[in-house]
Write a structure and sequence with these properties.
This protein has 185 residues and is mainly α. It is built from 7 helices and no strands. Helix 1 packs antiparallel against helix 2 and helix 2 runs parallel beside helix 4.
Amino acid sequence: MVFAGGSSLVEHFMGNNMWFFSLMHFAQFVILSVFYWRCIHNENMRTVIKFMPVLILGIFIFDFFWVEGFRAFNSISSGVKHLVLLVYGLYFFLQMLRDRNLIENAIYIDSLPVFWYNSGIFIFSCTEFLFCISYNHLQTLQSTGLTKIGMTMAILSINYIVGIISMILLYIGFSKIKKMKHANY
């Protein structure tokens, strides 16, 4: 809500909200890094996750001030952010598949809410990564007249459809919490 409402207000009052998009993408990365830091058990990976926001902040600042600027979509820092989230998600999937505690207790990973959260984040990051690394290129092609708006609309449509699928997966994860609470009574 902060992301959508804030970007709309900033665009309305300032005429350009791309700098706000960049800040919100970084804030999302920090929040998701905390989520993965809490879920992943390997201490080496947890250390990497702890320091990754600092590295992404450096890439963000470099992209924001010297490469693409504050009036453009910062596709480099956003693309790197989603690539790192893909690695986090993949590592977490592998951790769940090898978790001895889950295997010994015959717990299926699809009964865990974090499995569904990770699935939603992972699927969204896959398409968002492709969107982020291609968006500025598509805008450049449009401004030179080499492409039609249809290509951009197709990419945005795919992104929105995958966003809806991600929301469904997150809802399934929330519904698993509800079932787990009732099972404890």
